[in-house]
Write a structure and sequence with these properties.
about 325 residues; alpha+beta; 10-stranded antiparallel beta sheet; 12 helices; 10 strands; about 45% helix
């Protein structure tokens, strides 16, 4: 993720003022008040996944407020969703108070007045999600101003894990892959919020689909690994090998077939990009997890109807 701001290289006495001036007044348009200004710590890292902007934020204890004068400066209508990894946040909006922590997430409107009470040092992933694109994913086409989502189990946990995977692995993905995964993340989030208390995460079809999306996102982020085995995929995603195969029964292909198809599509995308023509076909194949150039050429021709070199000559 790209570093937007950090207090690390600043003198302690200047950190809070820098945070207030660079971030609160310009970046997010809020007021902030903190007790421990002399030893303030904070950073913001950012990455984009299509329409979603994800930020990894460290905050010292403080109160953040957005009012009408801040809202007037906004040029977009969106929701914020926070996945707290350390500390606690109370979100106050529309007469309600939601408590965010490691097991509970809050979704709230960026274009309505709110207060955030950050208790202790807080580390959190924030998602900025366009209202219109998010709303169309709900069964009734509407979202509440503020709502909560359990992240310790079920679909909420899958959504949180999906988000954490993108934060960790997103830098290695190209723009097309990030855009696609951003859309899938919105789908999983909307499904988790839409189900609400009905989410029991047993063998519910919706939970299986959400878990499958999460596993696919993890695989997508590791397609360049030559040692991407099914055992490693299962272990890294907290499922058994048997359950991994079971999840892919929801599709028309096996796990291995899906991985091969995604690798071939990524190779095709690289080979058609003029700025990457300095890479040889063999280098492209090896970088996307193929260990044999002859095998790569064979399966590439079978899928696309022409060889990699024919594609390059076009």
């Amino acid at each position: 993720m790209d570093l937007i701001f950090s207090t690390d290289d600043l003198e302690p006495s200047k950190r809070f003022a820098a945070w207030q001036g660079a971030i609160c007044d310009v970046y997010v348009h809020v007021d902030v008040n903190a007790e421990g200004r002399s030893d303030y710590q904070g950073f913001i890292r950012e990455a984009k996944f299509g329409a979603i902007t994800m930020t990894d934020v460290l905050l010292s204890e403080q109160r953040i407020s957005r009012r009408e004068r801040h809202i007037a400066k906004l040029d977009k209508d969106c929701y914020y969703l926070e996945f707290v990894q350390q500390g606690r946040i109370n979100v106050l909006q529309a007469g309600q108070t939601m408590r965010s922590n490691a097991g509970m997430s809050t979704v709230f409107s960026a274009s309505e007045a709110y207060d955030l009470e950050c208790i202790g040092k807080v580390r959190s992933l924030y998602l900025e999600i366009p209202r219109a694109e998010f709303a169309e994913r709900f069964s009734d086409g509407r979202l509440p101003v503020i709502t909560a989502m359990t992240t310790s189990r079920g679909l909420g946990r899958i959504a949180a894990e999906f988000c954490a995977t993108l934060a960790q692995e997103g830098a290695s993905l190209d723009e097309n892959a990030r855009t696609r995964l951003g859309g899938e993340l919105m789908d999983v989030l909307a499904l988790a919020l839409d189900m609400g208390d009905r989410d029991e995460f047993s063998e519910d079809a919706a939970a299986q689909q959400a878990r499958l999306r999460s596993v696919k996102a993890w695989i997508e982020a590791h397609l360049t690994d030559a040692d991407l085995s099914l055992e490693r995929i299962a272990k890294s995603n907290g499922v058994s090998l048997r359950h991994l195969h079971y999840l892919f029964r929801l599709t028309d292909v096996s796990v291995s077939e899906w991985i091969l198809d995604r690798r071939l599509q990524r190779c095709y995308d690289v080979l058609t990009r003029s700025e990457l023509r300095s890479l040889s076909i063999t280098e492209v194949a090896y970088q996307l997890g193929f260990s044999s150039s002859s095998y790569f050429s064979t399966v590439f021709r079978k899928k696309f109807g022409h060889s990699p070199s024919d594609l390059r000559r076009r």
